[in-house]
EamA family transporter RarD
Amino acid sequence: MPPLTTSSAAPNGTGSANRGIAFGAAAYFLWGIVPAYWPLLQPAGSAEILAHRIAWSLVVMALLTAVLGRWAGIRGLSKRGWLMVTAASVLIAVNWGVYIHAVNTGHVVEAALGYFINPLVSVLLGVVVLRERLRVAQCAALVVAVAAVVVLAVDYGRLPWISLVLACSFGFYGLLKKTVPLDATASLTAESLVLAPVAIGYLLWLGPAGTFQGHGWGHALWLASAGLVTAVPLLLFGAGARLVPLATMGMLQYLAPILQFAWGVFVVHEPMPGSRWFGFALVWAALAIFTFDALRTRRKLPVTNLT
């Protein structure tokens, strides 16, 4: 579920814009309903699922990269480029692993919180790392978001670590992606190349203790499908980002955590006491302030894609 920051040309007419919005909405819709997918891969544990996702993502992304003719860019990466790719690979592996663990252990709502606050974390990282200056409305949004985290920490009886790890790993990943001179497809392929030896080595070490064998062809196919679950939304997002401005894609990004939140509350019935609703209300208020300010100033929103 890599977050992407990519350039986007202005739409060429209403038809192109509508197609771009449709592609973007489809991508975020798929990321939004992915909590329904990971439990289908059980009885595999989170680590095994993550390893299969990495391994099969490499297969799918390598084929796509070959079809699109993007291998030259990967082969031409500098040592510094590969260092950035390696760092990004570690971050995305952490993000994927924590998200799979969250979904399969009944913490979908907490995971959705991470994607709600991710744009605000990205702004904060811009200030801390890139020395960007905050506008008054952005400061207000961050203050409200911090208050929300405090409320939710009291409610949970602990810091909402799943949310914070997801949001921060996405944020730092987005910063690193800006330093890698590859498009989205080639970049994810390069990251899969870095991670695949570890993932495949882990699966070989598991051997018969893993679930790929001994649980039927259906289970094996579900595990292998993790590559497509990674690639298809990515391609839809890339197609949409080429047809509409990133500000539009930035508005669509909230579709995914909204769907994830709805899945956690209304489908798997995770507990939502009044204090937790209040904490989420503060998060949504912070996002409303942030989004209104972004639209008012016509600044581009940080855009992420999800699991």
About this structure: The radius of gyration is 19 Å.
